[in-house]
Amino acid sequence: MTEARITVNGKETPISPAAPHTTALDLLRERGLTGTKEGCAEGECGACSVLVARPGVNKPTDWVAVNACLVPAAALDGQEIITSEGLATPGEPGTPATLHPVQSEMATRGGSQCGYCTPGFICSMASEYYRPDRCAHGDSADGADAAEGHDAEHGPNGFDLHALSGNLCRCTGYRPIRDAAFAVGEPTDEDPLAQRREQDPPAPVATEYTQDDSTFLRKNTLAETLQLLSERPDAVVVAGSTDYGVEVNIRSRRADCVVAIDRLAELRELRVESDHIELGAALTLTEIERRLDGDVPLLAALFPQFASRLIRNGATLGGNLGTGSPIGDSPPVLLALEASLVLAGVDGERVVPLADYFTGYRQSVRRPGELIRAVRIPTPLSPVTAFHKIAKRRFDDISSVAVGFAFDIQDGIVRKARIGLGGVAATPIRALATEAALEGRPWSTQTVEAAARVLRGEGTPMSDHRASSLYRSAMLGQSLLKLHAQTPEAVSS
After folding, report:
1. Which helix H or strand E contains 377, and what residues bound it?
2. Cβ–Cβ under 8 Å, residues 246 and 70
3. Three-state secondary-structure class, residue 291
4. Which of 232, 272, 330, 365 is 20 to 30 Å from 299 at the Cα level?
């Protein structure tokens, strides 16, 4: 076990003497890298964005933007990060640094006013700048028109504005920031960060970091981790820390023992078998999205509406399900897909249908010391799917109601209906009564209107600051009517 250290802008720095709960943001600022800012301390504003070298999808390494305000500094032991200060090329003594292309475009096009949020935008923009499969018009590998999807949210240079969905600005109105994003070109062959993508990312390291009777631990294997959790059932388990980080910042939570599982190889596999798809519980949502590449359409519909790209770069399905939140976005979709969870403990593994997993508000059948190892989605998939999220904002918001649909409609008859609901009960639930009202009946206006009335009565929706119980019930029924209106004629004929 070596001293916990992080490589920041090419230079190693020890984590000591920071407390184990200290965030990467606070550590960086304590070391003089004050470009990284705290805005919300909840992962919503992006002022704290930094780049981390992570295992790549299309190249050995991807530069991934994450919220430094949420990630414990100890979780980055052995890893490489780049801050906004590290993007520019230092000049000779007495001469100014050369701005990075992203920084240059932001300055040229007026993308910064007060400047508080600018470093975070710069890092998120740089992550998209270095995305290996980003290509400009006419530059796709197969010669197809790479800008075919060019619209208000996708630039002719292949830049996806959703890369900035987790960054907020109160000054510019965003147009000059968008202009800068759509103006950046391709990295040059001499760009050191582009070259770094061709090398493997830092290997996971075992970590045992203790300060002031508080400990942060990372083991090498799943077996070692499960043994540790059997001995320390009180330990807090973290992957992307997108939930725990908020608890630390906003509620001053200080755990005696934190166990990281985000780099465990056994939790990071994605396998396609003959009768199911298995998604490792510690794969980030971005990794799943890019590796599946639309092969599970219902998940593809979920991902753009799940928080922001910054959050999806760290958040995991295991974490979203492990918290047991009734308003998590993934459970309604996974319920509709009839997913099961592989739970692992020191005594072995067991497979539990997700429909049987939740037992009460933030409670589940998971035993002390057990981890979610993987999510299994049975195949073949139902051909008619949709995810409807009702929230106050189009993106990057918590849902008032979330509905996942997966239907098999043949010759105009609903052969199979699966509906997952979130935000209308103490746990995510299946809309069993509505499923029964649809199955075996024609996919017609009459059937759907009757089933929508049943759907409005599913669950026990409550009134809170996000929505009233009556509104939630109304949105349930409306979601089914919307699906029927949007279903292609060929499917229902």
Report:
1. strand 371-378
2. yes
3. helix
4. 365
Q: Name the burial class of residue 214, with classes exposed (0-12), middle (13-18) and buried (19+) by CB atoms within 10 angstroms of its CB.
A: middle
For 185, other C-beta atoms within 10 Å of its C-beta total 10
Structure tokens, 138: 């006419």
Neighbours of 212 (CB within 10 A): 10
Q: Give me the helix-helix angle, 118-129 and 101-108, nearest 10°.
A: 130
Buried b (16+ CB within 10 A) or exposed e, 282-293: bbbbbbbbbebe
Q: Is 417's pLDDT higher than 80?
A: yes
Per the structure block, which two tokens stand in for 208? 């045992």
pLDDT at 458 over 90: yes
The CA-CA-CA angle for residues 432, 438, 386, to 5°, reads 80
Q: Is the pLDDT of residue 135 over 80?
A: yes
pTM to 2 decimal places: 0.94
d(CA 199, CA 2): 23
Whole-angstrom Cα distance, residue 15 to residue 76?
A: 9
How much is the pLDDT for 490?
Answer: 46
Determine the Cα–Cα distance for residues 421 and 332; give it in Å rounded to an integer.
5
Q: Element (H or E) spanning 334, and its range?
A: helix 330-336
Helix ranges (H only) for 9-157 are 24-30, 101-108, 118-129
CA 239 to chain centre: 11
Beta strands in 397-479 (DSSP E): 401-410, 413-422, 429-430
In this prediction, residue 152 has a pLDDT band, given cuts at 50, 70 and 90, of: confident
210, 20 contact by CB (below 8 A) = yes
Centroid of chain to Cα 43: 11
Taking the CA atoms of the chain, what radius of gyration do you get in angstroms?
23
Cα separation, 263 vs 457, in Å, equals 43
The number of helices, as runs of H, and strands, as runs of E, in the chain is 16, 20
Angle at alpha carbon of residue 305, lines to 304 and 308, rounded to 5°: 75
Residue 385: alpha-carbon gap to chain centroid: 21
Q: Which residues of 63-73 are buried (b: 16+ CB within 10 A; e: fewer)?
A: bbbbbbbbbbb
Model confidence at 491, in pLDDT bands (50, 70, 90)?
low
- Cβ atoms of 54 and 201 within 8 Å: the answer is yes
CA separation for the pair 284, 262 (Å, rounded): 9
49-55 vs 61-67, strand pairing mode: antiparallel
Q: Which residues pair with 159 in a beta bridge?
A: none
